[in-house]
Protein backbone atom coordinates (compact mmCIF):
# COMPACT_ATOMS: atom_id res chain seq x y z
CA UNK A 1 0.00 0.00 0.00
CA UNK A 2 1.22 3.50 -0.81
CA UNK A 3 0.21 7.14 -0.56
CA UNK A 4 -2.22 8.05 -3.32
CA UNK A 5 -3.55 4.53 -3.71
CA UNK A 6 -7.29 4.06 -4.10
CA UNK A 7 -9.15 1.62 -1.86
CA UNK A 8 -12.74 0.42 -1.42
CA UNK A 9 -14.10 -0.14 2.09
CA UNK A 10 -17.64 -1.51 2.35
CA UNK A 11 -18.50 -0.05 -1.07
CA UNK A 12 -17.11 3.37 -0.08
CA UNK A 13 -14.08 4.58 -2.04
CA UNK A 14 -11.19 6.57 -0.62
CA UNK A 15 -7.64 7.71 -1.34
CA UNK A 16 -4.76 6.75 0.96
CA UNK A 17 -3.25 9.96 2.43
CA UNK A 18 -1.19 8.59 5.33
CA UNK A 19 0.45 5.32 6.38
CA UNK A 20 2.11 5.02 9.77
CA UNK A 21 1.72 5.15 13.53
CA UNK A 22 -0.76 7.30 15.45
CA UNK A 23 0.11 8.87 18.80
CA UNK A 24 -1.27 6.94 21.72
CA UNK A 25 -1.69 3.63 19.85
CA UNK A 26 1.77 2.17 20.17
CA UNK A 27 3.33 0.41 17.18
CA UNK A 28 -0.02 -0.22 15.51
CA UNK A 29 0.08 0.78 11.82
CA UNK A 30 -2.72 3.04 10.59
CA UNK A 31 -4.00 4.24 7.22
CA UNK A 32 -5.31 7.78 6.76
CA UNK A 33 -8.12 7.89 4.21
CA UNK A 34 -9.76 10.75 2.33
CA UNK A 35 -13.21 9.57 1.30
CA UNK A 36 -14.82 10.42 -2.03
CA UNK A 37 -17.95 11.16 0.00
CA UNK A 38 -16.93 14.38 1.83
CA UNK A 39 -19.26 13.59 4.75
CA UNK A 40 -18.15 9.99 5.24
CA UNK A 41 -15.30 10.77 7.65
CA UNK A 42 -14.94 12.30 11.10
CA UNK A 43 -12.15 14.88 10.63
CA UNK A 44 -9.87 16.47 8.05
CA UNK A 45 -6.72 14.55 9.01
CA UNK A 46 -6.17 16.39 12.29
CA UNK A 47 -6.58 13.89 15.14
CA UNK A 48 -6.00 14.41 18.87
CA UNK A 49 -3.76 17.42 18.56
CA UNK A 50 -1.70 16.28 15.56
CA UNK A 51 -2.13 16.61 11.81
CA UNK A 52 -1.48 13.39 9.90
CA UNK A 53 -2.87 14.48 6.53
CA UNK A 54 -5.15 17.12 5.01
CA UNK A 55 -8.48 16.58 3.28
CA UNK A 56 -10.48 19.06 1.24
CA UNK A 57 -13.59 18.56 3.38
CA UNK A 58 -13.60 19.06 7.18
CA UNK A 59 -15.38 15.69 7.47
CA UNK A 60 -13.63 13.85 4.66
CA UNK A 61 -10.98 11.93 6.64
CA UNK A 62 -10.70 8.77 8.71
CA UNK A 63 -7.96 6.68 10.31
CA UNK A 64 -8.29 2.89 10.00
CA UNK A 65 -6.07 0.04 11.11
CA UNK A 66 -3.74 -1.02 8.32
CA UNK A 67 -4.83 -4.66 8.33
CA UNK A 68 -8.56 -3.94 7.92
CA UNK A 69 -8.23 -1.80 4.79
CA UNK A 70 -8.92 -4.02 1.75
CA UNK A 71 -6.24 -3.99 -0.95
CA UNK A 72 -7.07 -3.36 -4.62
CA UNK A 73 -7.14 -6.43 -6.84
CA UNK A 74 -5.60 -7.16 -10.21
CA UNK A 75 -7.55 -7.24 -13.46
CA UNK A 76 -7.35 -10.99 -14.03
CA UNK A 77 -8.75 -11.70 -10.57
CA UNK A 78 -11.77 -9.49 -11.26
CA UNK A 79 -12.33 -11.01 -14.71
CA UNK A 80 -12.37 -14.51 -13.23
CA UNK A 81 -14.62 -13.40 -10.39
CA UNK A 82 -17.06 -11.78 -12.82
CA UNK A 83 -17.05 -14.27 -15.67
CA UNK A 84 -15.88 -17.59 -14.23
CA UNK A 85 -17.12 -18.18 -10.73
CA UNK A 86 -20.67 -16.86 -10.98
CA UNK A 87 -23.42 -19.35 -11.67
CA UNK A 88 -24.98 -19.14 -15.09
CA UNK A 89 -22.12 -17.06 -16.41
CA UNK A 90 -22.08 -18.92 -19.69
CA UNK A 91 -25.08 -16.81 -20.71
CA UNK A 92 -23.15 -13.60 -20.03
CA UNK A 93 -20.02 -14.38 -22.04
CA UNK A 94 -20.12 -13.26 -25.64
CA UNK A 95 -17.83 -15.45 -27.70
CA UNK A 96 -16.29 -14.58 -31.01
CA UNK A 97 -17.46 -17.84 -32.56
CA UNK A 98 -20.43 -19.97 -31.61
CA UNK A 99 -19.71 -23.53 -30.56
CA UNK A 100 -21.80 -26.62 -30.02
CA UNK A 101 -23.58 -26.49 -26.67
CA UNK A 102 -22.44 -29.16 -24.25
CA UNK A 103 -23.88 -29.70 -20.79
CA UNK A 104 -21.06 -29.62 -18.26
CA UNK A 105 -21.17 -30.36 -14.56
CA UNK A 106 -18.88 -29.80 -11.62
CA UNK A 107 -15.24 -28.89 -12.24
CA UNK A 108 -15.54 -29.60 -15.97
CA UNK A 109 -18.05 -26.76 -16.28
CA UNK A 110 -15.82 -24.35 -14.36
CA UNK A 111 -12.77 -25.34 -16.34
CA UNK A 112 -14.60 -24.78 -19.63
CA UNK A 113 -15.75 -21.33 -18.56
CA UNK A 114 -12.29 -20.40 -17.37
CA UNK A 115 -10.76 -21.49 -20.67
CA UNK A 116 -13.13 -19.13 -22.50
CA UNK A 117 -12.27 -15.86 -20.78
CA UNK A 118 -9.71 -14.95 -23.44
CA UNK A 119 -12.52 -15.21 -26.01
CA UNK A 120 -14.59 -12.45 -24.43
CA UNK A 121 -15.57 -9.72 -26.86
CA UNK A 122 -16.72 -7.29 -24.14
CA UNK A 123 -15.44 -7.17 -20.58
CA UNK A 124 -17.47 -5.09 -18.15
CA UNK A 125 -16.04 -4.67 -14.64
CA UNK A 126 -17.92 -1.63 -13.34
CA UNK A 127 -17.61 -0.63 -9.67
CA UNK A 128 -15.09 -3.31 -8.80
CA UNK A 129 -11.65 -3.05 -7.20
CA UNK A 130 -9.21 -3.22 -10.09
CA UNK A 131 -6.05 -1.39 -9.08
CA UNK A 132 -3.35 -3.46 -10.74
CA UNK A 133 -2.63 -4.97 -14.18
CA UNK A 134 -3.20 -8.68 -14.78
CA UNK A 135 -0.88 -11.13 -13.11
CA UNK A 136 1.92 -12.70 -15.13
CA UNK A 137 -0.10 -15.87 -15.81
CA UNK A 138 -2.85 -13.90 -17.56
CA UNK A 139 -3.79 -14.81 -21.13
CA UNK A 140 -3.77 -12.20 -23.88
CA UNK A 141 -7.27 -10.92 -24.71
CA UNK A 142 -6.76 -10.73 -28.47
CA UNK A 143 -10.47 -10.82 -29.29
CA UNK A 144 -11.74 -8.31 -26.71
CA UNK A 145 -13.03 -5.08 -28.27
CA UNK A 146 -14.47 -3.28 -25.24
CA UNK A 147 -13.03 -2.95 -21.75
CA UNK A 148 -15.22 -1.15 -19.20
CA UNK A 149 -13.43 -0.26 -15.95
CA UNK A 150 -15.98 2.27 -14.71
CA UNK A 151 -15.63 3.13 -11.02
CA UNK A 152 -12.58 1.01 -10.19
CA UNK A 153 -9.47 1.89 -8.17
CA UNK A 154 -7.01 2.90 -10.90
CA UNK A 155 -4.98 6.04 -10.31
CA UNK A 156 -1.72 5.57 -12.26
CA UNK A 157 -1.50 5.96 -16.01
CA UNK A 158 1.35 3.46 -15.98
CA UNK A 159 -1.14 0.86 -14.71
CA UNK A 160 -3.46 1.66 -17.62
CA UNK A 161 -0.56 1.14 -20.02
CA UNK A 162 0.31 -2.22 -18.40
CA UNK A 163 -3.33 -3.38 -18.60
CA UNK A 164 -3.59 -2.49 -22.29
CA UNK A 165 -0.59 -4.65 -23.10
CA UNK A 166 -2.99 -7.58 -22.64
CA UNK A 167 -5.61 -6.04 -24.98
CA UNK A 168 -3.82 -5.50 -28.31
CA UNK A 169 -7.03 -4.99 -30.33
CA UNK A 170 -9.20 -3.00 -27.95
CA UNK A 171 -11.54 -0.51 -29.63
CA UNK A 172 -13.32 1.05 -26.64
CA UNK A 173 -11.88 1.81 -23.22
CA UNK A 174 -13.97 3.21 -20.35
CA UNK A 175 -12.02 4.66 -17.41
CA UNK A 176 -14.81 6.83 -16.04
CA UNK A 177 -14.73 7.51 -12.27
CA UNK A 178 -11.17 6.35 -11.78
CA UNK A 179 -9.42 9.28 -10.10
CA UNK A 180 -6.29 9.50 -12.20
CA UNK A 181 -3.31 11.59 -11.22
CA UNK A 182 -1.60 13.76 -13.81
CA UNK A 183 1.36 12.60 -15.84
CA UNK A 184 3.61 14.97 -13.93
CA UNK A 185 2.84 13.06 -10.70
CA UNK A 186 3.93 9.68 -12.08
CA UNK A 187 7.15 8.32 -10.60
CA UNK A 188 10.08 8.47 -12.99
CA UNK A 189 10.63 4.73 -12.88
CA UNK A 190 6.97 4.12 -13.76
CA UNK A 191 6.93 6.47 -16.75
CA UNK A 192 7.77 5.20 -20.17
CA UNK A 193 9.30 7.39 -22.85
CA UNK A 194 7.32 10.46 -23.85
CA UNK A 195 6.40 9.30 -27.36
CA UNK A 196 5.09 5.87 -26.24
CA UNK A 197 1.70 4.57 -27.33
CA UNK A 198 -0.81 2.93 -24.96
CA UNK A 199 -3.13 1.54 -27.65
CA UNK A 200 -2.94 1.69 -31.43
CA UNK A 201 -6.48 0.41 -31.91
CA UNK A 202 -8.65 2.18 -29.31
CA UNK A 203 -11.20 4.36 -31.15
CA UNK A 204 -13.42 5.44 -28.25
CA UNK A 205 -11.91 6.69 -24.99
CA UNK A 206 -14.06 7.52 -21.96
CA UNK A 207 -12.13 9.56 -19.38
CA UNK A 208 -15.02 11.32 -17.63
CA UNK A 209 -14.84 12.22 -13.93
CA UNK A 210 -11.20 11.18 -13.81
CA UNK A 211 -9.86 14.45 -12.29
CA UNK A 212 -7.87 15.04 -15.46
CA UNK A 213 -5.94 18.29 -15.50
CA UNK A 214 -6.28 20.43 -18.61
CA UNK A 215 -2.51 20.39 -19.11
CA UNK A 216 -2.55 16.58 -19.29
CA UNK A 217 -5.32 16.24 -21.88
CA UNK A 218 -3.17 16.43 -25.00
CA UNK A 219 -0.56 14.05 -23.56
CA UNK A 220 -3.24 11.50 -22.70
CA UNK A 221 -4.89 11.64 -26.13
CA UNK A 222 -1.55 11.27 -27.87
CA UNK A 223 -1.20 7.89 -26.14
CA UNK A 224 -4.27 6.76 -28.10
CA UNK A 225 -3.53 7.78 -31.72
CA UNK A 226 -6.69 6.13 -33.13
CA UNK A 227 -9.10 7.67 -30.60
CA UNK A 228 -11.57 9.79 -32.59
CA UNK A 229 -14.45 9.58 -30.08
CA UNK A 230 -13.53 11.15 -26.72
CA UNK A 231 -15.86 11.44 -23.72
CA UNK A 232 -14.37 13.66 -21.01
CA UNK A 233 -17.23 15.26 -19.07
CA UNK A 234 -17.03 16.26 -15.42
CA UNK A 235 -13.29 16.93 -15.13
CA UNK A 236 -13.49 20.57 -13.94
CA UNK A 237 -11.60 21.70 -17.03
CA UNK A 238 -11.35 25.44 -17.62
CA UNK A 239 -10.03 25.04 -21.16
CA UNK A 240 -9.60 22.32 -23.75
CA UNK A 241 -6.41 22.61 -25.75
CA UNK A 242 -4.87 19.84 -27.83
CA UNK A 243 -2.30 19.64 -30.59
CA UNK A 244 -3.33 19.84 -34.24
CA UNK A 245 -2.49 16.16 -34.58
CA UNK A 246 -5.14 15.27 -31.99
CA UNK A 247 -7.69 17.91 -33.08
CA UNK A 248 -7.58 16.72 -36.70
CA UNK A 249 -8.68 13.17 -35.85
CA UNK A 250 -11.49 13.98 -33.40
CA UNK A 251 -14.95 13.13 -34.74
CA UNK A 252 -16.98 13.19 -31.52
CA UNK A 253 -16.17 15.17 -28.37
CA UNK A 254 -18.19 15.23 -25.12
CA UNK A 255 -17.05 17.94 -22.70
CA UNK A 256 -20.21 18.36 -20.60
CA UNK A 257 -19.98 19.65 -17.04
CA UNK A 258 -16.65 21.43 -17.43
CA UNK A 259 -16.67 25.12 -16.49
CA UNK A 260 -15.26 26.63 -19.68
CA UNK A 261 -17.31 29.82 -19.37
CA UNK A 262 -16.80 30.59 -23.06
CA UNK A 263 -16.67 28.55 -26.24
CA UNK A 264 -13.39 30.37 -26.95
CA UNK A 265 -11.84 28.14 -24.29
CA UNK A 266 -12.27 25.22 -26.67
CA UNK A 267 -9.03 26.18 -28.34
CA UNK A 268 -7.91 25.32 -31.86
CA UNK A 269 -9.59 24.08 -35.03
CA UNK A 270 -11.41 20.78 -35.43
CA UNK A 271 -11.77 20.07 -39.16
CA UNK A 272 -13.43 16.64 -38.79
CA UNK A 273 -15.51 17.07 -35.65
CA UNK A 274 -19.12 16.01 -36.27
CA UNK A 275 -20.50 15.92 -32.71
CA UNK A 276 -19.80 18.29 -29.82
CA UNK A 277 -21.42 18.39 -26.37
CA UNK A 278 -20.88 21.45 -24.18
CA UNK A 279 -23.89 21.09 -21.87
CA UNK A 280 -23.63 22.73 -18.45
CA UNK A 281 -20.33 24.45 -19.20
CA UNK A 282 -21.17 27.94 -17.91
CA UNK A 283 -21.29 29.39 -21.44
CA UNK A 284 -23.30 32.63 -21.66
CA UNK A 285 -22.64 33.72 -25.24
CA UNK A 286 -21.62 32.39 -28.64
CA UNK A 287 -20.90 35.81 -30.12
CA UNK A 288 -17.74 35.68 -32.21
CA UNK A 289 -18.05 31.99 -33.06
CA UNK A 290 -16.82 31.32 -36.60
CA UNK A 291 -18.15 27.81 -36.97
CA UNK A 292 -17.26 27.51 -40.63
CA UNK A 293 -13.59 27.69 -39.64
CA UNK A 294 -13.51 26.20 -36.14
CA UNK A 295 -16.04 23.37 -36.69
CA UNK A 296 -16.58 23.11 -40.47
CA UNK A 297 -18.22 19.62 -40.34
CA UNK A 298 -20.19 19.90 -37.09
CA UNK A 299 -23.65 18.29 -37.38
CA UNK A 300 -24.61 17.82 -33.71
CA UNK A 301 -24.29 20.41 -30.94
CA UNK A 302 -25.49 20.12 -27.33
CA UNK A 303 -25.39 23.40 -25.39
CA UNK A 304 -28.19 22.73 -22.92
CA UNK A 305 -27.78 23.95 -19.38
CA UNK A 306 -25.98 27.13 -20.43
CA UNK A 307 -27.61 30.53 -19.83
CA UNK A 308 -27.63 31.87 -23.40
CA UNK A 309 -30.35 34.49 -23.80
CA UNK A 310 -29.33 36.68 -26.76
CA UNK A 311 -30.27 36.31 -30.43
CA UNK A 312 -26.76 37.28 -31.53
CA UNK A 313 -25.59 33.93 -30.15
CA UNK A 314 -28.24 32.13 -32.20
CA UNK A 315 -27.09 34.12 -35.23
CA UNK A 316 -23.53 32.96 -34.55
CA UNK A 317 -24.71 29.34 -34.94
CA UNK A 318 -25.62 30.14 -38.55
CA UNK A 319 -21.87 29.84 -39.21
CA UNK A 320 -22.21 26.09 -38.48
CA UNK A 321 -23.16 25.34 -42.06
CA UNK A 322 -23.82 21.62 -41.54
CA UNK A 323 -25.60 21.80 -38.16
CA UNK A 324 -28.50 19.32 -38.21
CA UNK A 325 -29.20 18.47 -34.59
CA UNK A 326 -29.25 20.99 -31.75
CA UNK A 327 -29.97 20.72 -28.02
CA UNK A 328 -30.52 24.24 -26.71
CA UNK A 329 -32.58 25.92 -23.97
CA UNK A 330 -34.71 28.17 -26.20
CA UNK A 331 -36.99 29.39 -23.41
CA UNK A 332 -34.39 31.87 -22.18
CA UNK A 333 -34.74 33.89 -25.40
CA UNK A 334 -37.18 36.81 -25.60
CA UNK A 335 -39.66 36.72 -28.49
CA UNK A 336 -42.57 38.70 -29.88
CA UNK A 337 -45.96 37.88 -28.45
CA UNK A 338 -47.70 34.98 -30.16
CA UNK A 339 -44.66 33.01 -31.34
CA UNK A 340 -42.46 30.46 -29.60
CA UNK A 341 -38.69 30.87 -29.30
CA UNK A 342 -38.09 27.45 -30.88
CA UNK A 343 -39.96 28.62 -34.00
CA UNK A 344 -37.63 31.60 -34.36
CA UNK A 345 -34.60 29.32 -33.86
CA UNK A 346 -35.88 27.02 -36.62
CA UNK A 347 -36.46 30.00 -38.91
CA UNK A 348 -32.92 31.23 -38.32
CA UNK A 349 -31.04 27.92 -38.62
CA UNK A 350 -31.85 26.59 -42.07
CA UNK A 351 -29.98 23.28 -41.85
CA UNK A 352 -31.70 22.00 -38.65
CA UNK A 353 -33.65 18.75 -38.91
CA UNK A 354 -33.86 18.12 -35.15
CA UNK A 355 -34.29 20.64 -32.33
CA UNK A 356 -34.28 19.31 -28.77
CA UNK A 357 -34.95 15.79 -30.09
CA UNK A 358 -38.05 16.84 -32.04
CA UNK A 359 -38.02 16.40 -35.79
CA UNK A 360 -38.17 19.62 -37.78
CA UNK A 361 -40.48 18.44 -40.55
CA UNK A 362 -41.22 20.29 -43.74
CA UNK A 363 -44.47 21.62 -42.32
CA UNK A 364 -42.79 22.61 -39.04
CA UNK A 365 -40.16 24.59 -40.91
CA UNK A 366 -42.59 26.28 -43.28
CA UNK A 367 -44.92 27.19 -40.44
CA UNK A 368 -42.07 28.54 -38.31
CA UNK A 369 -40.64 30.60 -41.16
CA UNK A 370 -43.96 32.14 -42.16
CA UNK A 371 -44.94 32.87 -38.56
CA UNK A 372 -41.52 34.45 -38.03
CA UNK A 373 -41.96 36.63 -41.11
CA UNK A 374 -45.43 37.76 -40.10
CA UNK A 375 -44.28 38.56 -36.55
CA UNK A 376 -40.91 40.19 -37.19
CA UNK A 377 -41.07 41.88 -40.60
CA UNK A 378 -42.99 44.78 -39.09
CA UNK A 379 -41.11 45.32 -35.82
CA UNK A 380 -39.14 48.50 -35.32
CA UNK A 381 -35.78 47.08 -34.22
CA UNK A 382 -34.77 44.39 -36.71
CA UNK A 383 -31.07 44.38 -35.78
CA UNK A 384 -30.89 40.68 -34.92
CA UNK A 385 -33.43 39.56 -37.53
CA UNK A 386 -32.86 41.58 -40.72
CA UNK A 387 -30.78 38.93 -42.51
CA UNK A 388 -33.39 36.24 -41.81
CA UNK A 389 -36.27 38.45 -42.96
CA UNK A 390 -34.61 39.22 -46.29
CA UNK A 391 -33.75 35.54 -46.87
CA UNK A 392 -37.24 34.28 -46.04
CA UNK A 393 -39.03 36.91 -48.14
CA UNK A 394 -37.04 35.54 -51.09
CA UNK A 395 -38.45 32.08 -50.26
CA UNK A 396 -42.03 32.80 -49.20
CA UNK A 397 -42.73 36.25 -50.62
CA UNK A 398 -43.79 39.38 -48.75
CA UNK A 399 -45.32 38.68 -45.33
CA UNK A 400 -49.01 39.18 -44.68
CA UNK A 401 -50.21 41.28 -41.79
CA UNK A 402 -50.17 39.07 -38.74
CA UNK A 403 -53.68 37.78 -37.94
CA UNK A 404 -53.25 38.73 -34.30
CA UNK A 405 -52.52 42.32 -35.32
CA UNK A 406 -55.56 42.30 -37.63
CA UNK A 407 -57.67 41.02 -34.76
CA UNK A 408 -58.63 37.94 -36.80
CA UNK A 409 -59.13 34.51 -35.30
CA UNK A 410 -60.43 32.74 -38.44
CA UNK A 411 -59.28 32.19 -42.02
CA UNK A 412 -61.40 31.79 -45.10
CA UNK A 413 -60.13 28.75 -46.98
CA UNK A 414 -61.04 26.67 -50.03
CA UNK A 415 -61.91 23.03 -49.20
CA UNK A 416 -61.90 20.25 -51.81
CA UNK A 417 -63.35 16.77 -51.40
CA UNK A 418 -63.38 14.85 -54.68
CA UNK A 419 -65.31 16.97 -57.20
CA UNK A 420 -67.00 19.00 -54.53
CA UNK A 421 -65.58 22.39 -53.54
CA UNK A 422 -66.63 24.46 -50.54
CA UNK A 423 -65.38 27.64 -48.88
CA UNK A 424 -65.50 27.91 -45.11
CA UNK A 425 -64.17 30.14 -42.36
CA UNK A 426 -62.16 28.00 -39.98
CA UNK A 427 -61.03 29.19 -36.53
CA UNK A 428 -57.24 29.21 -36.19
CA UNK A 429 -57.59 27.86 -32.65
CA UNK A 430 -59.69 24.89 -33.84
CA UNK A 431 -58.00 21.52 -33.45
CA UNK A 432 -57.42 19.25 -36.42
CA UNK A 433 -59.76 16.67 -34.85
CA UNK A 434 -62.63 19.15 -34.59
CA UNK A 435 -62.09 20.14 -38.22
CA UNK A 436 -62.30 16.46 -39.16
CA UNK A 437 -65.57 16.12 -37.24
CA UNK A 438 -67.02 19.18 -38.94
CA UNK A 439 -65.98 18.06 -42.43
CA UNK A 440 -67.32 14.55 -41.82
CA UNK A 441 -70.75 16.09 -41.35
CA UNK A 442 -70.31 18.49 -44.28
CA UNK A 443 -69.29 15.78 -46.76
CA UNK A 444 -71.41 13.04 -45.16
CA UNK A 445 -68.49 10.77 -44.23
CA UNK A 446 -69.72 8.15 -41.70
CA UNK A 447 -66.73 8.36 -39.38
CA UNK A 448 -64.33 11.26 -38.95
CA UNK A 449 -61.54 8.75 -38.25
CA UNK A 450 -61.73 7.82 -41.94
CA UNK A 451 -60.86 11.38 -42.99
CA UNK A 452 -57.36 12.46 -43.95
CA UNK A 453 -56.62 16.18 -44.25
CA UNK A 454 -53.95 17.75 -46.42
CA UNK A 455 -53.02 21.40 -46.70
CA UNK A 456 -51.80 22.22 -50.19
CA UNK A 457 -49.54 25.24 -49.82
CA UNK A 458 -48.68 27.34 -52.84
CA UNK A 459 -45.32 29.13 -52.89
CA UNK A 460 -44.35 30.97 -56.04
CA UNK A 461 -43.93 28.25 -58.70
CA UNK A 462 -44.20 25.18 -56.44
CA UNK A 463 -46.67 23.53 -54.10
CA UNK A 464 -46.27 21.60 -50.86
CA UNK A 465 -48.79 18.96 -49.76
CA UNK A 466 -48.69 18.52 -45.98
CA UNK A 467 -50.77 16.01 -44.06
CA UNK A 468 -52.47 17.35 -40.93
CA UNK A 469 -51.85 14.17 -38.97
CA UNK A 470 -51.77 15.51 -35.40
CA UNK A 471 -55.40 15.64 -34.20
CA UNK A 472 -54.56 17.77 -31.16
CA UNK A 473 -52.69 20.51 -33.02
CA UNK A 474 -54.39 23.83 -33.70
CA UNK A 475 -55.09 24.70 -37.32
CA UNK A 476 -53.27 27.99 -36.90
CA UNK A 477 -50.02 26.13 -36.30
CA UNK A 478 -49.80 25.45 -40.06
CA UNK A 479 -50.08 29.16 -40.91
CA UNK A 480 -52.76 28.66 -43.60
CA UNK A 481 -53.08 31.42 -46.17
CA UNK A 482 -56.49 32.63 -47.30
CA UNK A 483 -55.21 33.55 -50.74
CA UNK A 484 -53.07 30.59 -51.75
CA UNK A 485 -53.76 27.45 -49.70
CA UNK A 486 -56.32 24.69 -50.23
CA UNK A 487 -57.56 22.17 -47.67
CA UNK A 488 -57.96 18.78 -49.36
CA UNK A 489 -60.19 16.10 -47.82
CA UNK A 490 -59.71 12.40 -48.56
CA UNK A 491 -61.63 9.53 -47.01
CA UNK A 492 -62.01 5.77 -47.24
Automatic annotation (TrEMBL):
Domain spans labelled CAP-Gly: 30-65
Superkingdom in the source lineage: Eukaryota
Single Gene Ontology BP annotation: cytoskeleton organization
UniProt key word Transcription regulation: no
UniProt keyword terms in alphabetical order: Chaperone, Cytoplasm, Leucine-rich repeat, Repeat
InterPro entries cross-referenced by the UniProt entry: CAP-Gly_dom_sf (IPR036859), CAP-Gly_domain (IPR000938), LRR_dom_sf (IPR032675), Ubiquitin-like_domsf (IPR029071), Ubl_TBCE (IPR044079)
GO cellular component: cytoplasm
CDD domains in alphabetical order: Ubl_TBCE (cd17044)
Subcellular location: Cytoplasm
Family the UniProt entry places it in: Belongs to the TBCE family.
Subunit structure of this chain's protein: Supercomplex made of cofactors A to E. Cofactors A and D function by capturing and stabilizing tubulin in a quasi-native conformation. Cofactor E binds to the cofactor D-tubulin complex; interaction with cofactor C then causes the release of tubulin polypeptides that are committed to the native state.
Protein name as it appears in the record: Tubulin-specific chaperone E
Organism: Caenorhabditis brenneri (Nematode worm)
